[in-house]
Write a structure and sequence with these properties.
By secondary structure, this protein is α+β, with helices and mostly antiparallel strands. The protein is built from 4 helices and 2 strands; from the N terminus they run ααβααβ. It has a two-stranded antiparallel ribbon.
């Protein structure tokens, strides 16, 4: 169940919190699984997981940081303008959820873009 469906169910059931909503068993366990995963990832050693630096994804070092404080009508166009493609832009910036950025509040975002080869 996605966010819009949960919102609808809460409205129909007149629920004010997640805990008050009657959900199917798979969906109702979802939140607890996410919390458990977050807890383990915050301190893996206390749960018996031994991670070495080689187990982590390497940081993106060879990239440019572009400050964006205006709307971006299309991230694909933005990517091409900066010498990459949409897929790579998403890999470098997993926080990008939509194909555009409205940015009505004119917040400043840092977008990582791989350096172009010369």
């Amino acid at each position: 169940m996605g966010g819009p469906r949960l919102t609808r169910e809460m409205q129909v059931q007149r629920a004010k919190t997640y805990e008050e909503v009657n959900l199917n068993s798979e969906t109702s366990r979802y939140l607890f699984r996410i919390v458990a995963l977050k807890t383990i990832l915050e301190d893996p050693a206390s749960f018996g997981y031994q991670l070495s630096p080689d187990d982590y994804y390497p940081p993106f070092r060879d990239c440019n940081q572009i400050q964006v404080n205006e709307p971006v009508p299309n991230w694909g166009d933005f990517a091409i303008k900066h010498g990459t493609d949409y897929r790579t832009l998403k890999v470098y910036n997993p926080w990008l959820k939509a194909s555009s950025l409205t940015n009505k509040a004119r917040k400043t975002y840092t977008v990582l873009v791989p350096k172009m080869e010369k």
